[in-house]
């Protein structure tokens, strides 16, 4: 008892005693009485303990005695009534806590405590003439009863006195369970639930036996045992979730766990049910019942309101999609919907989305209320009443407008009807009036019903008239009573209610009595009384006045009772006969005995002895090593919880669903389609701002959804084609792009049920948090870092030990976040212990590693299965984010700003950048011409400064600033206000850029930076460095990733970083800009002089890490300072290659063009045009390329257009370049439109293609493209059609010409037009008709294209559907098939169409039957009659019909057992196409029933050759085969037919784990020469390869097989060993020797096997080099691939790979390119050879050499001094310049030093003057040829060289 409860009781007793002493004065007695009652109100019956409630009962009874003595008998009776009700409630709550009752399917979905509270709140009916519910005082969770309900006292008394049934309350039959000892095997799920309920905090020990109390104490102290019990429970849920077949027994077992599951696993169990209910094509009553049971039985608080909304949405969708004829399924779904709505009302759900859920559900229920089926009618009315208790989210104002608008439409309808000229409007008006009339008729009907039944309607502007039925509230209360066993109160309620004559009330009561009667958890006596009660009510017309329709439910109840347990219900049979005489037309409609409880119901006699408890037994047998898994989950949830938050710059938090992550595949070079990738633009991903942090080979088209991250896929990085789950994933990404958000989403996804079958645990470790950790074992890491928050050391050690075991079993996903942040910590000698720990973490079975590209250490990471890049937000993500975080006005403003601003495209895909833009939305510029990237950052910084000024409590004078003041500040005033903070942030950012681009700052780094400026710039009040440090940390610009770990980390251990890398670059630019404005005297030591500034710019202007810095410097400068900066950029020490300089120049010029002198601007513009033309010259050998300079958004668009306008050659390339820009201006679009009239065909086509890439393009483009469809140039017409097709919404003026093009003679144009039309989301009716005509009359190619267009239309007019249905029935075979395709997967096909197809299957000719089967195959849902017709068609006399039927059934992922059995029989069909299609159909069934498996096993043994082959194949596609099936496949390895043996081996290979006997049989098959043939041996080898781990004996046998005489055996053995990553040295030696084998297949397999070894000895490499000259092309290719697996090859091997580029077989050359690309550095000799190949015009050698050189540009630069002048000229023109336009590559020569910049490194080398002159002259020769002489070249030379010239 709490102190407050004790105080309240004492006070109440004291007041009661005072009242007793004041009995002489009635006023004093009443005063003390009210004071006592007031005190007792503090004892809440929902929260108080049993002692407090007992004390409250005693106090109330004492008050009743005092009131009796004072003559206040009414108040005394009220006190006694409260005391009795509370006492009964107290007793019942104890009974409820200790019983595990299972409510019926229609029982109230509320907790047991709420049941007791609700029933106790009912007013007693005995002895009262009237009773009413005080609506104002009724709890919200209890629907208010109708007031002034009249009761017939005479009738109530007579039936009460004359009946002997329901005279006392009953308890459920209790089934005794023993309590398990520590680690003792559990016997049943019921025992588990009982044990876990005893361990709950709400259990009172006074209710328990001494043995149970002792068990509770010992188990609560034994955390391992408690974890064991909880783990078994959650593993049962996991097992149930992963099982594909969820039968009634499994459902009944798992739902018992609902009361003991926490919110995470309750939600997991809920989603298990909702997923399969929604995804399954069939309806399963036991699944819906199980869903309801979970909601009913869940512990309070474990299911949230959002969970209930999701469940309701799922059930509603399923109800919508259920076929109208399936009344049984609809009835059960309505039952579930009703219970969910009841629960939502009880839980006080705020509101439902009116448009998406509340309104559509309400409309559907109204429709079902008029059903002919009485069960549907009643349940729909009940659900509609339940829905009235849940409001929608429509505002009052919006609802008012809607109602007014509806009325106006009705009024307007009368006027339209009278207007004969507006036929269409008149029809619409009539339709509106008809709908309004229906609504009015319904309203009158409801009003009449309300008056007749004494219901009380309510009205509000939001909800209109609401008719709440009294029978609904009464049924809910009756349900509560009967489910609690309070039969007396149930009888009183039923027999005294004035609305007992209403149909709905009678029907509901009959259902409740029926379900009570068949529910074996109640005693037989009470169940018999229920039937007697039902019979009395049925016969007693005066009391009951039975409604005619109720006979059906009474009949069904009695039929169920007599059928299931007739011997125990003698009176039911005679009553049933009487009903049959009265209503002979009745038939059984509903089986009230739900299949949910057939297997796991407690019985009075046997308890649970008949139950199988399969899940329980499976868990205990399969997972003996998981005793502490629940404890691990609970501890990790606490560990992760502070981090699973996304915080905006505004300080608000975002849920993780709002934060999007897009993962693009980083492709292996062998899997790139280079030219195609270079040309293709991604429409859904924004242009990404250029950054030095780039990831090579990212394919932004190949995006992997997060939920599919661990799906099986081909893993090219493993060098094999087998699909597997990626285990080692590297995720790279630029700073701020969302890598840590990805980690949070992975943890969150696993917590919500994803990948539970793969991982038991997901552990996220931010690697920076391991700084300072000195341990070197996983157990120590887990104990001292992960579980440090546990309250006991023993607990930490136990959990750490258990997590290590999980990791060893491969059931832990390690997320290692931020490899780049700790790589430097592993390089020092004293940190080798940490390096070993990191290697251990990286070596785990499942690992996801995140890193910036520059921080990937391959020596640590070693191999990976999959490389990904986080590419930021897509266009849709940006829109969704903006709408989520802003109101509608602000969202529209930001979206318009993004749409019209090209430069912002590279910013908004970065989440934090978009967040800052949204935060600054009200300061965004309105004039597009004024927008620059630097200007945008200035706006964002000032917006954040205003926020910081308030946070830092800035003042102006004595006034403390707030938002209202700051809104009036000018920009310069904000700058001055935060001048000190901005200056110090600039210096800190600059220091980081200078310190090897440092982005993470320790506390000491910030202190040092503040100390070095020593108070400079702080004004009159100098600030101490420490004070400045704390101020800077409070700004919005510095963030710490350790903010949520403040309680765990000391301040000195935290690291800080700028809001985003670009903000650091902006602030560094502000610091550099200060040097252009400051005077040279009195500067602090840290400021640079003019000469130092010039040297600094010269040194870093080509450093890729400074690219954005220089752009922002240019954007911040003005006037003379800007000219001075351009002078430094254009001055001496220019980039020798040229491309890098032009990119920097273009970016700075684009940022400042409007502020430069026109003459100077024109000079820069001319220079850029010259270099653009030079790039065109270097690309002259490539017909489909684009300019890398011109396609960059930073390159001035006007310069590109002017170059295109003035150029005669390369115009098509420049037009493609313009189109390759992610966004172009209206001026550029108009220019491209004019190019459609160019006299050159290629230019016209390039212009059309470029226009097509703009999405969406303006209407001004549509007409020219439509006109191009009529041009004579067929290539232009196709390009124009493709361009139009890229738009998802075209006007009718464009669609009709495309439709006309379907009739053109040229078939390629017809197909292009059809494809263009297919991309339209909605086509006009004329276009649809033309497509239908084309399908019927066109050739097969165009007809197929037209069919696919129609298939993709979301809606088709009814006339088109009818026409297509007729074509299926009456067209020839080809047209019927195309019509079936066109109808597609249309769930909205009219019922008549489905019926027509079914009829055609039975009665049509063979063509019609075949086409009808095809049409049915495309339907997502089929009625049972259609499935049966398809099954019958499998026996059709025509093989084409049988083929089509098998194909149609094969498109259904879940078939009934009848269909599966028929398909198994079809495997034996004489026609091979039929049996083959049946085989494919069966292979698509994810899990076949046991009967089908048995039939297939028999077929494998006894069928003909093809049947055995097909059966083996089908078995192979099953995820888990029983032992008998595996044995039959092993036996089939000795089949007389080779195809059967091969297929049996394939089937065995698809099993994830094979018994050792099966592995031995496969090895024998591989070695057995007499039995095996080549392809059989290959299949056996592949099966063995698919085993992730082979037993040691098998590997030994395979090594022996390498020495076998038979070459096929040797080849197969080598093939198997190729999948083993670590082979013994002897095996590697044998494989190397096999490279000289006489059999080419042996040599090929040996080379592949060697290629999968991470490290090869020198002898093996020499053998592979020799194999590059093998006579077989495949062997040479395999040898090149194997050499490429080694990151460092000797020079001789590299030279041999260079020679292989000249191989006559293209694949050898291509593989050699890949192999050379994997080398970290190319030796100088290889560079010479590759350059020589550039001149080889024969074959592909030149292109291959060029690709290798581009991959090794840094190797070329290193070798440059040793190259000849001709070699330098060749490699400069063909490779270096092009690469420098694409990637960061620059060369500078200063004081005999050659300086090289690439993306990741800076290199320098001393060279002599002769070498310097050689390089200069070679570059000059190339540039002279292209007119790049004069000042441009002179600026390259240092001043000393200029003077010498």
UniProtKB/TrEMBL annotation:
PROSITE patterns: NACHT
Pfam families for this protein: ARM_5 (PF23948), DUF7068 (PF23238), HEAT_2 (PF13646), NACHT (PF05729)
Region (Disordered): 1-20
Ranges for domain NACHT: 727-855
Superkingdom of source: Eukaryota
InterPro entries per the UniProt record, alphabetical: ARM-like, ARM-type_fold, Arm_rpt_dom, DUF7068, NACHT_NTPase, P-loop_NTPase, PBS_lyase_HEAT
GO molecular function terms attached to this record: oxidoreductase activity
Protein name listed in UniProt: NACHT domain-containing protein
Lineage: Eukaryota, Fungi, Fungi incertae sedis, Mucoromycota, Mortierellomycotina
């Amino acid at each position: 008892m709490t102190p407050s409860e004790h105080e309240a009781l004492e006070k109440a007793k004291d007041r009661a005693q005072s009242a007793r002493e004041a009995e002489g004065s009635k006023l004093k007695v009443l005063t003390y009485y009210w004071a006592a009652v007031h005190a007792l109100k503090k004892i809440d019956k929902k929260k108080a303990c049993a002692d407090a409630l007992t004390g409250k009962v005693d106090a109330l009874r004492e008050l009743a005695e005092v009131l009796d003595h004072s003559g206040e008998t009414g108040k005394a009776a009220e006190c006694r009534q409260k005391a009795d009700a509370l006492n009964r409630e107290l007793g019942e709550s104890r009974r409820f806590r200790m019983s595990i009752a299972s409510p019926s399917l229609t029982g109230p979905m509320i907790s047991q405590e709420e049941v007791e509270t609700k029933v106790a709140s009912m007013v007693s009916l005995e002895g009262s003439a009237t009773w009413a519910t005080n609506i104002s005082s009724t709890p919200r969770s209890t629907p208010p009863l109708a007031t002034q309900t009249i009761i017939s006292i005479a009738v109530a008394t007579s039936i009460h006195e004359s009946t002997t049934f329901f005279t006392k309350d009953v308890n459920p039959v209790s089934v005794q369970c023993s309590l398990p000892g520590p680690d003792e095997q559990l016997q049943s799920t019921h025992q588990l639930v009982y044990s876990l309920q005893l361990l709950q905090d709400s259990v009172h020990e006074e209710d328990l036996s001494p043995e149970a109390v002792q068990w509770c104490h010992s188990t609560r102290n034994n955390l391992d045992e408690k974890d064991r019990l909880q783990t078994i429970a959650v593993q049962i849920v996991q097992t149930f979730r992963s099982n594909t077949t969820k039968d009634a027994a499994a459902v009944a077992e798992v739902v018992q766990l609902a009361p003991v599951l926490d919110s995470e696993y309750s939600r997991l169990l809920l989603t298990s049910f909702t997923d399969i209910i929604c995804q399954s094509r069939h309806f399963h009553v036991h699944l819906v019942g199980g869903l309801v049971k979970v909601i009913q039985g869940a512990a309070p608080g474990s299911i949230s309101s959002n969970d209930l909304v999701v469940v309701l949405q799922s059930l509603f969708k399923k109800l919508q999609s259920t076929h109208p004829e399936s009344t049984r399924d609809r009835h059960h779904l309505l039952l579930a919907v009703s219970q969910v709505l009841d629960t939502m009302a009880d839980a006080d759900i705020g509101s439902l989305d009116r448009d998406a859920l509340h309104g559509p559900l309400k409309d559907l229920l109204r429709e079902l209320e008029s059903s002919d089926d009485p069960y549907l009618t009643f349940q729909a009315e009940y659900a509609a009443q339940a829905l009235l208790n849940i409001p929608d989210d429509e505002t009052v104002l919006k609802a008012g407008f809607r109602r007014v608008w509806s009325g106006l439409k009705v009024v307007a309808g009368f006027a339209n009807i009278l207007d004969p000229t507006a036929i269409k409007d008149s029809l619409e008006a009539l339709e509106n009036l008809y709908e309004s009339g229906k609504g009015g008729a319904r309203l009158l009907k409801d009003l009449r019903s309300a008056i007749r039944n004494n219901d009380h309607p309510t009205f509000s502007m939001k909800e209109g008239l609401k008719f709440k039925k009294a029978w609904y509230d009464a049924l809910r209360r009756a349900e509560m009573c009967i489910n609690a066993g309070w039969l007396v109160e149930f009888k009183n309620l039923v027999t005294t209610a004035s609305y007992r004559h209403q149909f709905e009330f009678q029907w509901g009561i009959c259902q409740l009595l029926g379900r009570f009667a068949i529910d074996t958890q109640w005693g037989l006596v009470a169940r018999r009384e229920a039937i007697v009660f039902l019979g009395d009510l049925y016969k007693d017309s005066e009391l009951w006045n039975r409604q005619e329709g109720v006979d059906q439910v009474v009949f069904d109840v009695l039929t169920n009772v007599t059928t299931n347990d007739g011997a125990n219900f003698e009176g039911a049979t005679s009553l049933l006969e009487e009903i049959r005489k009265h209503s002979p037309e009745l038939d059984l409609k509903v089986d009230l005995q739900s299949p949910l409880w057939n297997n796991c119901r407690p019985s009075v006699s046997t308890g649970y002895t008949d139950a199988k408890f399969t899940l329980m037994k499976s868990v205990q047998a399969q997972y003996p090593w998981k005793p502490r898994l629940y404890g691990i989950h609970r501890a990790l949830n606490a560990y992760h919880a502070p981090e699973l938050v996304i915080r905006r710059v505004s300080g608000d938090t975002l849920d993780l669903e709002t934060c999007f992550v897009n993962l693009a595949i980083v492709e292996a070079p062998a899997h790139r389609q280079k030219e195609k990738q270079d040309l293709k633009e991604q429409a859904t991903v924004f242009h990404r701002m250029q950054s030095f942090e780039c990831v090579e080979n990212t394919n932004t088209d190949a995006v992997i959804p997060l939920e599919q991250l661990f799906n099986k896929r081909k893993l090219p990085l493993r060098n094999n084609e087998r699909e597997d789950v990626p285990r080692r994933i590297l995720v790279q990404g630029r700073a701020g792009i969302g890598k840590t958000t990805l980690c949070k989403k992975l943890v969150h996804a696993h917590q919500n049920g994803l990948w539970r079958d793969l991982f038991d645990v997901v552990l996220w470790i931010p690697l920076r948090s391991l700084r300072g950790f000195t341990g070197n074992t996983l157990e120590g890491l887990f104990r001292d870092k992960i579980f440090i928050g546990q309250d006991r050391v023993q607990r930490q050690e136990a959990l750490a030990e258990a997590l290590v075991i999980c990791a060893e079993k491969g059931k832990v996903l390690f997320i290692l976040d931020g490899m780049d942040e700790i790589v430097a910590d592993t390089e020092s000698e004293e940190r080798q212990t940490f390096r070993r720990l990191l290697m251990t973490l990286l070596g785990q079975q499942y690992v996801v590693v995140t890193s910036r590209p520059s921080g990937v250490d391959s020596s640590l990471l070693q191999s990976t299965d999959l490389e990904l890049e986080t590419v930021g937000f897509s266009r849709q993500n940006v829109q969704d984010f903006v709408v989520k975080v802003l109101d509608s006005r602000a969202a529209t403003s930001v979206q318009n700003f993004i749409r019209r601003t090209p430069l912002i495209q590279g910013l908004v895909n970065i989440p934090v950048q978009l967040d800052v833009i949204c935060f600054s939305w009200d300061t965004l510029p309105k004039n597009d011409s004024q927008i620059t990237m630097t200007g945008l950052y200035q706006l964002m910084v000032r917006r954040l400064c205003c926020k910081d000024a308030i946070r830092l409590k800035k003042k102006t004078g004595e006034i403390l600033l707030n938002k209202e003041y700051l809104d009036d500040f000018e920009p310069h005033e904000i700058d001055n206000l935060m001048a000190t903070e901005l200056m110090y942030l600039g210096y800190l950012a600059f220091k980081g850029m200078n310190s090897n681009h440092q982005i993470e700052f320790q506390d000491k780094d910030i202190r040092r930076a503040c100390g070095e400026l020593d108070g400079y710039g702080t004004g009159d009040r100098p600030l101490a460095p420490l004070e400045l440090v704390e101020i800077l940390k409070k700004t919005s610009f510095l963030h710490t990733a350790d903010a949520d770990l403040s309680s765990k980390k000391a301040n000195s251990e935290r690291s800080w970083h700028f809001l985003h890398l670009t903000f650091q670059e902006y602030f560094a630019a502000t610091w550099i800009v200060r040097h252009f404005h400051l005077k040279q005297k009195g500067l602090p030591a840290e400021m640079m002089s003019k000469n130092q500034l010039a040297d600094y710019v010269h040194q870093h202007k080509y450093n890729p890490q400074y690219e954005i810095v220089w752009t922002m410097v240019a954007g911040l400068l003005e006037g003379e300072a800007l000219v001075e900066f351009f002078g430094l950029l254009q001055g001496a020490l220019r980039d020798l290659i040229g491309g890098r300089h032009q990119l920097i120049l273009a970016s700075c010029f684009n940022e400042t063009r409007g502020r430069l002198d026109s003459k100077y601007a024109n000079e820069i513009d001319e220079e850029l045009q010259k270099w653009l033309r030079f790039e065109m010259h270097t690309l002259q050998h490539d017909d489909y390329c684009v300019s890398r300079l011109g396609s960059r958004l930073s390159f001035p668009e006007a310069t590109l257009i002017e170059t295109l306008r003035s150029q005669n050659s390369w115009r098509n390339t420049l037009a493609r370049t313009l189109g390759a820009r992610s966004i172009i201006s209206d001026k550029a679009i108009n220019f491209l439109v004019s190019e459609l009239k160019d006299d050159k065909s290629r230019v016209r086509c390039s212009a059309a293609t470029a226009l097509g890439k703009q999405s969406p393009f303006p209407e001004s483009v549509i007409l020219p493209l439509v006109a191009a469809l009529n041009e004579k140039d067929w290539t232009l017409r196709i390009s124009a059609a493709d361009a139009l097709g890229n738009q998802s919404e075209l006007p009718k003026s464009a669609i009709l010409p495309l439709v006309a093009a379907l009739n053109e003679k040229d078939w390629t144009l017809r197909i292009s037009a059809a494809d263009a039309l297919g991309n339209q989301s909605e086509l006009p009716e004329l276009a649809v008709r033309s497509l239908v005509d084309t399908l019927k009359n066109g050739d097969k190619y165009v007809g197929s294209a037209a069919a696919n267009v129609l298939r993709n239309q979301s809606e088709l007019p009814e006339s088109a559907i009818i026409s297509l249905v007729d074509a299926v029935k009456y067209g020839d075979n080809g047209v019927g098939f195309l019509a079936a395709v066109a109808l597609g997967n249309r769930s909205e096909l009219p019922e008549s169409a489905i019926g027509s197809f079914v009829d055609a299957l039975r009665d049509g000719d063979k063509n019609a039957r075949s086409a009808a089967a095809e049409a049915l195959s495309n339907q997502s849902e089929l009625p049972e009659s259609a499935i049966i017709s398809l099954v019958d068609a499998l026996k059709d006399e025509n093989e084409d019909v049988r083929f089509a039927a098998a194909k149609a059934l094969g498109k259904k992922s879940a078939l009934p057992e009848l269909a599966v059995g028929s398909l198994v029989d079809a495997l034996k069909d004489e026609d091979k196409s039929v049996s083959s299609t049946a085989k494919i159909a069966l292979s698509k069934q994810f899990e076949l029933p046991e009967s089908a498996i048995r039939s297939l096993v028999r077929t494998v043994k006894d069928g003909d050759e093809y049947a055995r082959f097909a059966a083996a194949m089908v078995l192979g596609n099953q995820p888990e085969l029983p032992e008998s099936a595996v044995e039959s496949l092993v036996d089939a390895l000795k089949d007389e037919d080779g195809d059967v043996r091969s297929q049996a081996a394939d089937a065995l290979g698809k099993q994830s784990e094979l018994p050792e006997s099966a592995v031995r049989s496969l090895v024998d098959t591989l070695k057995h020469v007499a039995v095996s043939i080549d392809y059989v041996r290959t299949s056996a080898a592949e099966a063995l390869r698919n085993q992730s781990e082979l037993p040691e004996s098998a590997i030994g046998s395979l090594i022996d097989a390498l020495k076998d005489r038979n070459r096929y055996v040797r080849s197969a053995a080598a093939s198997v060993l190729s999948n083993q990553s670590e082979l013994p040295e002897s095996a590697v030696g044998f494989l190397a020797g096999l490279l000289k084998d006489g059999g080419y297949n042996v040599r090929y397999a040996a080379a592949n096997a060697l290629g999968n070894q991470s490290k090869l000895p020198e002898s093996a490499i020499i053998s592979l080099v020799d194999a590059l000259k093998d006579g077989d092309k495949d062997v040479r290719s395999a040898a090149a691939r194997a050499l490429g697996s080694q990151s460092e090859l000797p020079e001789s091997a590299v030279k041999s790979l260079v020679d292989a580029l000249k191989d006559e077989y293209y694949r050898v050359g291509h593989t050699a390119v890949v192999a050379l690309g994997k080398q970290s550095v190319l030796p100088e000799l290889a560079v010479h050879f590759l350059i020589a190949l550039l001149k080889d015009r024969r074959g592909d050698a030149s292109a291959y050499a060029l690709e290798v050189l581009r991959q090794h540009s840094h190797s070329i630069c290193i070798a440059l001094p040793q190259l000849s002048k001709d070699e330098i000229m060749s490699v400069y023109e063909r490779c270096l310049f092009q690469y420098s336009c694409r990637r960061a590559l620059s060369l500078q020569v200063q004081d005999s030093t050659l300086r090289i910049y690439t993306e990741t490194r800076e290199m320098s080398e001393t060279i002599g003057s002769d070498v310097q002159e050689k390089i200069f002259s070679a570059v000059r020769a190339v540039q002279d040829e292209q007119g790049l002489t004069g000042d441009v070249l002179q600026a390259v030379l240092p001043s000393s060289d200029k003077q010498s010239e």
